[in-house]
Amino acid sequence: MTMRAPASDLPIMLVEARIVAGSVTILDGISLTLSPGVPTVLIGPNGAGKTTLLRVAMGLLSPTSGRVTWGGREAAAPTHRAIMFQRPVMLRRSAAGNIRYALNAADISRTEWEQRTAVLLKLVGLGGLGPRPARRLSGGEQQRLALARALARDPTVLFLDEPTASLDPAATKAIEDIVGKIAARGVKVVMSTHDLGQARRVGGDVMLLHRGRVIEKAAANDFFTTPKTEEAKKFIAGELLV
After folding, report:
1. What is the dihedral of CA 93, 82, 219, 50, to 10 degrees?
2. Is pLDDT at 229 greater than 50 in this prediction?
3. CB 194 within 8 A of CB 165
4. For residues 30 and 17, is the Cβ–Cβ distance under 8 A?
5. How far apart are CA 118 and CA 216, in angstroms?
């Protein structure tokens, strides 16, 4: 199992993308390119637009104005994209059954289900827990199962919305290790987090959002050692952005 689909959805490009809800501007004219390579980590205060940006890049939300393209196409089915939300819902079936459900939804042949399920459970460190009811897994185990489920269709790009927000340090490290494995196999990871330490550990590129705008984007080391904007300097120092 390669864990990598044809790179038909990359690069993902947002061009002056705006999301407006009533009188509130959630994304304010964002232009950016998500290319194959190292993980991109989105940081910023609550309400900055991180989750909305992930949803737009996934194709779950259409911009009020501006446009989004996937591999140069404005209309692209999410065949090679997957997203994992902060609190994924576990289906009322076994851990393996949750993955089989995702494989079925991805139109994977039944003849491949057993092998793919075993590979995915092993990848996320749940190799012996396939028969266990998913809702009886610990919080960290459920997050890892959700990751395996998202990977069922061999995505080119994987969006993660604060995947460790409610986890303890050990469970957080387990998720971060899996993200590293996924990225090493050629999957583009785009992840939001409120944890600057995690952004340092996981990010290849770091993007700071504030008030629906991209304030600064740079390689992780450059972002944290030589931030260019006052907003980035304040956020890294732990000051509030208002």
Report:
1. -80
2. yes
3. yes
4. yes
5. 41
Contact 12, 127 (CB under 8 A): no
Sheet holding 81-84, edge to edge: 81-84, 157-161, 188-192, 40-43, 205-210, 213-219
The answer to whether 31 and 65 are in contact (CB under 8 A) is no
Contact 118, 43 (CB under 8 A): no
Q: What angle do the packed helices 169-184 and 139-150 form, to 10 degrees?
A: 10
Q: What is the pLDDT of residues 34-65, one digit of tens each?
A: 999 999 999 999 999 999 999 999 999 999 99
Domains of the chain listed by start with CATH number: 12-236 (3.40.50.300)
For 77-114, write each residue's pLDDT tens digit: 888 899 999 888 999 999 999 999 999 998 889 999 99
The HSE-up count of residue 227 (CA atoms within 13 Å, CB side) is 15
